[in-house]
């Protein structure tokens, strides 16, 4: 055939190229002699940019509150915002609660408080919730910061771990009574 197309696969370690662009240059040889070249450093169709995945987090209670109660079953939800992920691939977010006063992992009952979420994004950017459930009865007056790391195939590719980040921070106050709501009606619904 006088014309056609072909595919060539390149395997590279992209971790060393985060944020960089590369341009593919091709030459065609026949009998050891170069007969055609496509080598345009400005050609956007030959250019690939290696983007660096990013995450950010916002921690709060289940109702969005920044002060949580010291209840026996405390729940903290960290909403992780991600960018530049590959749709259809499976990622894991690993979270840990840090004691802001010490800068060390928070200890509850002698153990660190961690949570994990595995997800497969449909779009390069979006959010995923990481839910921490733990005994908060001993945490009155504590300020806690959530640290998160993003992994792909067991390799850490992004981290959000800023002990001063207010968005990642919650405090613990008094025990909060359970919430209930009622609606009263007559038997006929009135």
Provide tags for this entry.
single chain, 190 residues, three-stranded antiparallel beta sheet, elongated
Folded structure, characterized:
The chain is an all-beta fold and 190 residues long. 0% of the residues lie in helices and 45% in strands. It contains no helices and 16 strands. The strands form 5 sheets. Strands 6, 8, 9, 12, 14, 15 and 16 form a 7-stranded mixed beta sheet that branches. A hairpin with a 2-residue loop joins β10 and β11. The protein is elongated, with a radius of gyration of 26 Å. The mean pLDDT is 85.
Distance between termini? 82 Å
Low-confidence stretches: none
- The total strand number stands at 16
Taken as a percent bin, the fraction of beta residues is over 45%
| SSE series | EEEEEEEEEEEEEEEE
Q: Helicity range of the residues?
A: under 10%
Quote the average pLDDT: 85
Q: Shape from CA axes?
A: elongated
Number of helices: 0
Largest sheet: 7 strands, mixed
Radius of gyration: 26 Å
Structural class: mainly beta
Short description:
With 190 residues, the protein is mainly beta.
List the helices and strands and how they pair.
Elements: E1 21-23, E2 26-30, E3 33-38, E4 47-49, E5 54-60, E6 67-68, E7 74-83, E8 91-99, E9 104-105, E10 107-108, E11 111-112, E12 114-119, E13 126-134, E14 143-152, E15 155-160, E16 169-172
Parallel strand pairs: 6-16
Antiparallel strand pairs: 1-4, 2-3, 5-7, 7-13, 8-9, 8-12, 8-14, 10-11, 14-15, 14-16
